[in-house]
Amino acid sequence: MPATVARSSSSGPDDACCGEFRSVSRRGLFVGALALAGTTTAVGSAVVTASPASAASADSVLVVLSLRGAADGLSLVVPHGDPVYYQARPRLAIPAERLLAKDAMFGLHPSLAPLLPLWESGRLAAVHATGLPAPNRSHFAAMEEVEDANPGSTVRQGWLNRLIGTDAGGSPLQGFNVGGGVIPGALFGDEPVMSAGSVDDVRIPGDDEWVSQDGRKRSLHTLWDTHPGPLGKAMRSTFSAITDFRPVQAAADNEDRYPNSDLGRALATVARVVRGDVGVQVLTVDQGDWDMHSGLGTLEWGQMLHNADDLATSVAAFMDDLGSQQSKVTLLVLSEFGRRTVENDNYGLDHGYGNVMFVAGSGVRGGAFHGRWPGLTLDDDADLLVTTDYRSVLAEIVSTRFGSSTATVFPGFTPTPVGVMT
To answer: Crossing angle, helix 229-244 and helix 215-224, to 10 degrees?
Structure first.
């Protein structure tokens, strides 16, 4: 599939139950899309900047990894010091003696062992009891709210789109989604961004050995180089971005160093984009399925073992693959909400509230568990409560790594200090 350069505004679909996640793993609609020569340009109400500046190195890079389906943070970072955890999960609880990087309250799931070097070197941290201001157990509604990060707004614009909007560059290369062409909500908005499944997809389809003397490219330039209006400007911006992307395609492909999984392949692509050093500031990638109503399992079997191992092995390979660019990259890992404290009858967990977030890489105050622990309960709700609004974690990254206004990126929100960034 060719790359997508997009900006749009749309409303997310309503949803009713957990089947929503299994039927569609990523949501979003293109509005006002123009399909031309296999390259899709979605144009909203604003004008795409024409003839953006040539690609320049980014000072800071943020990679956002979304664990789709609501990962169980109480399995990934286990509150072994809270006795309710073991009461609530007689079959699923992880024995304290098996946990990694353990302190008096928390420890990491054993399958996260590949991340221990990052933790021990102070480049990985966890923030527990994070989440939305109010519970939302609908996957798509929660994803929408998390990624817009602007409660009550009727404008479809994600927080990452607002972040790159604080830079006047206006190039689609500022934001890049590694995936199947549907831009995640965090990147939706007025600023142009790109989406592709692989770096080789960033091209004009038909620009190959079967089209002699760049015939298709010449035809497209003839059509659009002097075309007035927003579509002409959008197409010229697309041509420029494709040209500026070439150093990424020339960068080494180290996919064989990663797990043979969707996440491994996606993070290999992210690392290649970063090493290409063409000015990409934010990148998004997904891992799923974390919706474990049944079969979450134990330390001997189950989905959690597989997903946690894939997550840890892929992230460890990614951080190592960054090479000389590692000092500028911060990785954020989050999910739309957590799972219930109490296990169900199917070796699984139903939708909950509070969760854990991971932050790794540059500028991280690592080797520590951050956040204020509220304590677990066995009452009717049996949810982990949220003591840290997830936007406070995002705001700390935005302010320390990009120097951007948190009031612009998170309108109407006053963040509280978290201490996860230096």
So the answer is: 140
46-91 per-position pLDDT tens digit: 222 233 445 689 999 999 999 999 999 999 999 999 999 999 999 9
pLDDT of residue 46: 24
Helices (H) and strands (E) in the chain, counts: 13, 14
Q: Check if CATH label 3.40.720 holds for domain 56-184+256-409.
A: yes
In 3D, which of 108, 80, 82, 72 has the Cα closest to residue 374?
82
Q: What is the pLDDT of residues 321-331, one digit of tens each?
A: 999 999 999 99
Secondary structure letter of residue 26 according to DSSP: S
- Confidence band (pLDDT; 50, 70, 90) for 31? very low
Half-sphere exposure of 347 (CA within 13 A, CB side): 11
Contact by Cβ (8 Å): 283, 274: yes
**Banded model confidence at residue 10, pLDDT cuts 50, 70, 90:** very low
DSSP calls for 159-214? HHHHHHHTSTT--GGGEEEESSSPPPTTT-SSS-EEEESSGGGSS-TT-STTSGGG
Token pair in block for residue 420: 């996860």
Determine contact, residues 3/248, Cβ cutoff 8 Å.
Answer: no
Query: In sequence order, what are the residues at sequence separation of 6 or more whose Cβ sits closer than 8 angstroms to the Cβ of residue 186?
Result: 64, 146, 147, 148, 149, 158, 159, 160, 161, 284
Q: Which amino acid is at 111?
A: S
- Residue closest to 377 by CA, chosen among 74, 94, 99, 108: 74
